[in-house]
Amino acid sequence: MAALADGDAAYSSLDSDDEYEKFIQKMNPPRVTIDNTSCPNATVIHVDSANKYGVLLEVVQVLTDLKLIVKKAYISSDGGWFMDVFNVTNQGGHKIMDESVLEGIKDCIYKSIGPDSCLLPSRRRAIGVEPSSDYTLIELTGTDRPGLLSEVSAVLTNLECNVVNAELWTHNERAAAVMQVTDRKSGLAISDAERLGRIKERLCNVFKGRSRDAKTTVAMGITHTERRLHQMMLEDRDYDRHDKDRASGSPTSMVSVVNWLQKDYSVVTIRCKDRPKLLFDTVCTLTDMQYVVFHGSVDTEGPDAYQDYYIRHIDGSPVNSEAERKRIIHCLEAAIERRVSEGLKLELSTGDRVGLLSDVTRIFRENGLTVTRAEVSTKGDKAINTFYVRDAAGSSVELKTLEAIRQEIGQTVLQVKGHPDQPKSLTQESPTRFLFSSLFRPRSLCNLGLIGS
């Protein structure tokens, strides 16, 4: 995100190249066709267009954002032409039969890679940033620790900020967050430079780690959150860890990189347990590392995922050193692991109000829980949040701790997903108890050293 602060001057030299690319795209507009007859258990999407760096990620990003499951994929982009086939299903594993939905898929893909899509090689376009006055965008990276999200949300509440949407990832003792906030009183983006500087300074103090500096960015705009989180954690080198730590950890994936000398490609092979958005995560990482996928195949019809990519660096060269080969492997392993949800899943659904996130995460912290991943969203006047939690030692959460938290927050407000010892039926109570009691419960921000007394 720091690169965005450099202004438009860094991209001015690309104008002539951009105009040429637009001309090529208009002369060779993309074609998107959808076939529901050739495959018995999936809808087949064909995408053909002039080849361009990043076009594969654009298409995969659209499919992921539309919540489609890619069961198989065939990728080919030699000779300046991009030809991909995706076998997809809906979340239930069925074909997409609704014609209006199918037309919507075609329209989204076309807009993403068509002649008016502004598919430029700049970092600005790559993360989808456009000016916006709806909210202020905050990005944070630093050392992970128990209670981090609680401290961040408490500081924002104290600074008269309302968290509209947010996502937090943690991996390998690192943390990254993208948050969309507004002014508490006006409900608009915060534009005062002095106030933005104060917010940045306070949050940077919270995110400071022992071994690496924290990074905090406050700006106007919108971004593709998951894409940006991958970029932030890659820049923060969350893939770095000692070889002994790799050996002692349980392997969750198998990644290999070998050179095919006859064709001047490097072949990346990935074998791991399948999960939603895995294809997006691996393609996103290869693209952000400036590699181009010339050919590839994906198969996820069983419990495991099989991905093979024939790649070259953006300068046209295959992998040419052992250090580069290891870096690709470690970065892809990190991309696979980042979204793997460590901890117990808790879902909160209640009426939205300022300070809600601060109150909920404070209760987690006071009961010894740490948040490993979080998705915070606001739809209308309702807050819909998902947290993955574990205890401070990294172990599973005890049932008595969960019940204590649910008694404090509200049985109907906070739902537990998948705890092995959870009773099938639990006493339900009104959510109003939490909504009122949390407003008056004393907070210990002064003890945390986050604000003045």
From TrEMBL:
**Does Repeat show up as a keyword for this record?**
yes
Name it.
ACT domain-containing protein ACR
- Lineage, top-rank taxon, reads Eukaryota
User: What UniProt keywords are attached to this protein's entry?
Assistant: Repeat
Task: Outline the extent of the ACT domain.
Answer: 44-120, 137-219, 345-421
Write down the InterPro entries for this protein, in alphabetical order. Answer: ACR1-12, ACT-like_dom_sf, ACT_dom
Q: From what organism does this protein derive?
A: Sorghum bicolor (Sorghum)
Q: Does the keyword Repeat apply?
A: yes
